[in-house]
Design brief:
This protein has about 200 residues and is an all-alpha fold. It has one domain (about 15-175). Helices cover about 75% and strands about 0% of the residues. It is built from seven helices and no strands. It has helices at about 1-10, 15-60, 65-70, 70-95, 95-125, 130-155, 160-170. The longest helix has about 45 residues, at about 15-60. The radius of gyration is 27 Å and the shape is rod-shaped. It starts with a helix and ends in a 27-residue tail after the last helix.
Amino acid sequence: MAAEMNDQNTQAPPPEIMKELEELRIDARLGKDKHFSAADRTKYLNMTFGLPVIIINVLLGSVFFTAVFEESFRSTMGPILAFLAAALGAVHTFFNFHKSMEAHRAVGNRYIEISRRCRALIRGYQDELVTKTAAWEQLNELLANYHALNKEAEAFPPTRRDFQRALTKKELRGGDKGELIEMDQVKTPNPTPTPGEGD
């Protein structure tokens, strides 16, 4: 009889605080994946547009260009290469890929922090180290941080492709289920309220 009651308690649905924390954890992780994907993309663009400019400028300004190539080639290709370097440099400067890459990484790291704090709070609640009242208070703080971060991230929006890559990562992780304990298997902590704790 006791074993049956214990099994029923184990199979009880998780409290709302656990659902909210898990949902925020998954959303923050998705935000992290989007911005790290965007950071990888802008890093590639930074190299694609920046490296040729350096190589062309070094080539045009070196003795190698005048010593190896004939005058007719230099007079034809020199202006073309100079124009190409200027065009690539202008695009590179306009989009500022390096700054964008750093911004996406910074935002992604802050999403990681929120996700990890949610995970730690979930585990603390499961181990009965955090009361329900304290968990709700910390959740509200995390939600405020999450919404503030979303507003800041609007200045560096990921592309649709970045979002699709993030969703693909989520699916590869099994839809972000099971990293902690399956939410329908979560054992609700001892329902006895602590002094000063309200439901």
